[in-house]
Amino acid sequence: AVENLCSYKVSATLYKQLRQVCEDHVKAQILQFREYPFPVHRYDSLDSLLFLKKINKCWQDHCRQMIMIRSIFLFLDRTYVLQNSMLPSIWDMGLELFRNHVISDKQVQNKTIDGILLLIERERSGEAVDRSLLRSLLSMLSDLQQVYKESFEQRFLEETNCLYAAEGQRLMQEREVPEYLHHVNKRLEEEGDRVITYLDHSTQKPLIACVEKQLLGEHLTAILQKGLDNLLDENRISDLTQTYQLFSRVKGGQQILLQHWSEYIKNFGTTIVVNPEKDKDMVQELLDFKDKVDHIIEVCFQKNEKFINLMKESFETFINKRPNKPAELIAKYVDSKLRAGNKEATDEELERILDKIMIIFRFIHGKDVFEAFYKKDLAKRLLVGKSASVDAEKSMLSKLKHECGAAFTSKLEGMFKDMELSKDVMVQFKQYMQNQSDPGNIDLTVNILTMGYWPTYTPMEVHLNSEMIKLQEVFKTFYLGKHSGRKLQWQTTLGHAVLKAEFKEGKKEFQVSLFQTLVLLMFNEGDEFSFEEIKMATGIEDSELRRTLQSLACGKARVLIKNPKGKDVEDGDKFIFNGDFKHKLFRIKINQIQMKETVEEQVSTTERVFQDRQYQIDAAIVRIMKMRKTLGHNLLVSELYNQLKFPVKPGDLKKRIESLIDRDYMERDKDNPNQYHYVA
């Protein structure tokens, strides 16, 4: 019938009449809602729910009927309506009528939206609600264009905002940080789920932004002040990961997290570095702290570059709060790891420890302090043959060279060279001795140390016996015969010897220092000597001699008996050869009583570093002035800061400049005292 009517050009009338019939029907629908008792209070929830169900049924019916009508009038819809661009399709006409006559009714619209918001609110507070009803009603509002955006979404977001603003304030007071962040996460998931289940997709962005702002954005600083230190102290990886992820969602969140992260590292690090009581554990604590921080960056902060860089800056800041001491302790720590008898590590582990040490070393400004102490310890390891492994030593050197350049390690490398050259010299010396008419029965091994490479040792004049002096002379003749123009100075403090001894129990060998040797050899001449006699005969300096006797008469292997007994060596003590000496080993090493590295020694090493620095500053000033000829004070100072590898105070630079002016390397400008000229 529809097709026939259309063929007879009655389409226009047909459409008009159809619209009229539909309109009458839709208008009639409104009556049922008019009669509906309107509650005074919007929270009369049961009534509100019934109303929503009713409006939903009305909408569902309308849709079903319009689909039927559209199918019947399909020919009209496809011909006449399509050709007239001004006319809405039959389906759209139905929507328009429903919007104009039902939903645009102020009372109906308010009551519908109030009801929807009430349901959502109940769901947010944990009740179960009819989600399919919500989905149906909200898609109705979306289908009716603009109603969703204008009437529903704006009010929905306002209510969400108020709800979460209050919730954020309340829970920040009540909960600990990890629980609070857990809650924020849960809320974000719930709201995301709401968008998927029944809200229009366009609401997602503003809704999530609103939750983030009220629960996170408003409380960023408070959250970190209240809980970050605690999470970091206790190394709570999963909570820190959550903090990072949530803070990354909010504008400015990462920035604030970065600041607090940096503060934490500086504060914690400072407690490790500045407290002298903690010195013996300082380096180990620094390494552990660095490991912990690295782990957090890797696992929780997704290896974020900003966090890595700031961590490095923070380390550098706190480690240099106490000048010189950390550098010295790092050098000693390396010494303890490279010394033989350090059984705790395999080669791989040792390599790993050295790599970690280098990272801490990198943060230190006064690297020359490290070098001075490192050199002192390296000398001990090499001369006493106490190095755990040459490979590890070389590996550490190459790390230092890579980090600080060849100039930094040239002396250290020189020490290794000396040890190797000494071996070659000894091979030649052995051959030389065999060709002597009287080769003697003592083996002499000499290490030839180049003066500038090694730490300075105070030479001590002692009385060697004639065989030793003779051997020294033979070696001197041999060495200077090969290298004319060199000067040999014997360092008695570093010498050691192997002695053969006979006791009632049988023969033994002793590995002893040169000083111990001189004392023990006296007992070939007699069985008992007093402290004063020994001192006279050997010429060993007083405190050095007391320590030597202590090692021989009060230590584990007591070759001498002290009378009276006691731990310390006093004037007037007598020493007697112990003929009954027993020991399970054949060759026994009698350790020198180690003088604890005295404060003076530490101070003198540090002083030497400062003396070196003065020369380096002078050299740098002269280099710069020679190149520039004329330069202002400030430019000179900034150029010096670029060139010098250690921290200097402007006052020190001024003193060096004054000293160079006094020594005629440069002069002040006649008219401008802040200008300097190079004096050729």
Automatic annotation (TrEMBL):
GO aspect biological process, one term: DNA repair
Gene3D superfamilies: Cullin Repeats (1.20.1310.10), Cullin, Chain C, Domain 2 (3.30.230.130), Winged helix-like DNA-binding domain superfamily/Winged helix DNA-binding domain (1.10.10.10)
Cullin family profile domain residues: 325-553
UniProt superkingdom: Eukaryota
Recorded GO CC terms: Cul4A-RING E3 ubiquitin ligase complex; Cul4B-RING E3 ubiquitin ligase complex; cytoplasm; nucleus
GO molecular function: ubiquitin protein ligase binding
Keywords: Cell cycle, Cytoplasm, DNA damage, DNA repair, Isopeptide bond, Nucleus, Phosphoprotein, Ubl conjugation, Ubl conjugation pathway
Pathway linked to the protein: Protein modification; protein ubiquitination
Compartments it resides in: Cytoplasm; Nucleus
Signal peptide per UniProt: none
Annotated family: Belongs to the cullin family.
Protein name in the entry: Cullin-4B
The species this protein was found in: Asarcornis scutulata
Organism phylogeny: Eukaryota, Metazoa, Chordata, Craniata, Vertebrata
Gene that specifies this protein: Cul4a
